[in-house]
Amino acid sequence: MTKQLRNCRILAHKELTPNNLSMQVEWLNADQDFQPAQFVQVETSTTLDPLIRRPFSIFDTDPYSFTITYKKIGAGTQALSTRKKGDTISIIGPLGNFYPIHKIKNNQKVLIVGGGTGIASVHYLAKVLEKKNINYTLLIGFSRCTDIFCEPELQDLKGEVIITTNDGSKGKKGFVTEHFNFHDLNNSIIFICGPEPMTRAWQKKSELIGIQNYDIYASLEEYMGCGLGICNGCVVKVKIKKNDQFDFKCVCTNGPVFNLKDIIWT
Ligand SMILES: Cc1cc2nc3c(=O)[nH]c(=O)nc-3n(C[C@H](O)[C@H](O)[C@H](O)COP(=O)(O)OP(=O)(O)OC[C@H]3O[C@@H](n4cnc5c(N)ncnc54)[C@H](O)[C@@H]3O)c2cc1C
Ligand code: FES
Prior knowledge:
The chain has 266 residues and is α/β, with parallel strands linked by helices. It has helices spanning 30-33, 75-81, 119-131, 151-156, 196-209, and strands at residues 4-17, 20-26, 39-42, 54-57, 60-61, 65-71, 88-95, 109-115, 137-142, 160-165, 172-173, 188-193, 215-219, 235-240, 245-250, 257-259, 263-264. Strand 12, helix 5 and strand 13 form a beta-alpha-beta unit. Bound molecules: flavin-adenine dinucleotide and FE2/S2 (inorganic) cluster. Residues 224-227, 229-234, 250, 252 line the site of FE2/S2 (inorganic) cluster (FES).
């Protein structure tokens, strides 16, 4: 659907860990309107500080609402955390493109990789794949067990879920890149969302292995101003296949999902 500006009612707002919260927002037909990796621009504060909206991915939907999960890290998320159930909040959405689920080929293995705040969009992706009866493996990384803000939701997923923590306090110890046999990329499609170092590491490792027949799409989390393609605050450098040159693309309107093989990190 085309993007809309709506004043929405907050249906629930709760702390999941000391720094992670979830907010459920009323939005009729959210399960139809939002695709995995799409995001909303949220007016976090009722004052002019901070002035600029903040982007958040969709974590889940139902016919009446969507849920976002967020980490309190600065002024915007701090202001957002003070909003109460029953308050009205200004939202622009749905924004951006989405994971190209339609490109999954018959017999292709589906691997989903998430880390940090990127977990929201990969969780929603897993739920949507389940509705379409598509099998997947979800590889998901946290710094430590106390950061796992969505354990019940991960347990509810029907696919294979592999949790890693950097310090080994839960699941497998280390980074998500350490717990995947990159030779298994053969005939796979990978969807990835997480901190830039994680996404870069995944791109580098998969290139090193030299396997050609896999597809890899990443949802990028760039700093955003407008979220609407106006300020050019979110550009990334992308290869243009035809003439071996590059172009700059806005993550907010051309993305957030890109073919990771096309991204040129600067
Ligand atoms: C498409 C998209 C989807 C997102 N989805 C989620 C989500 O589901 N849940 C969630 O918690 N966050 C998500 N984010 C990140 C979220 O928008 C930022 O955390 C938020 O804007 C921070 O606002 P703030 O005012 O609290 O912090 P600020 O004061 O703006 O920043 C605090 C610190 O965080 C860093 N930071 C801010 N924005 C980003 C960013 N985009 N990438 C890396 N570092 C950043 C700043 O450098 C600074 O160090 C998403 C970002 C994008 C672009
Ligand atoms: S955030 Fe303004 S153009 Fe993307």
